[in-house]
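User: Run a structure prediction on this.
Assistant: Running it now.
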Amino acid sequence: MEVEFTARQVRISKALRDYAEEGMERIGRIVGKTAHSSITFSAQRHEHIVELTVQGRSQKIAATGKANTPEAALRQAMAHAEHQALRFRDRRIGGKRLPKEEKIVTAPPVSRPKSRATPSADLSEERSAGKPRASILVHSFPAKPTVVEPHILKNGEAIAIRPLTIEEAVKEAEFRDRDLLIFRTVAGDTFVLHRRRDGQMELVEIP
């Protein structure tokens, strides 16, 4: 995978560059060899920030790592990016694969005769003509659907404490690796940001 490095007020050592290229090769085997990536190293006071972006054929991954050292920030960003790549690959494989029970068996169209005839006459004609009988596949379903009780866990990580813009909320959800984030803007409006099954992020305003 082609990796582009950018340093802002920091210095990238050769060991850090080699570690980043090794980690991006591991991610490249998941998203595809044709993907390219960019890594930006920066620092704010005593905190090192690594912003990582991977552009694949049908997927774009964005991850951020923050730590006291650039190595720890890079390791955190690559872990988030690898988790997103694996989740996208599993979702794509699961969408292509269908269980045998869910396959739909289509039967050829049945043509009605022009003139109505008695069932006994049609049966005697088919037997005399030697036509094979068509087998009909019958599916049986349970009389009552099985109800599974949901397992509910309390978690406060899906709520942003400080006011955010929509762009900041999207980055915060990617950084936390959450499919759901509840936040409010500076104006006091409350929104819910969640990821749909097709991978798109949807914004819902709470009145």
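The mean pLDDT is 77.
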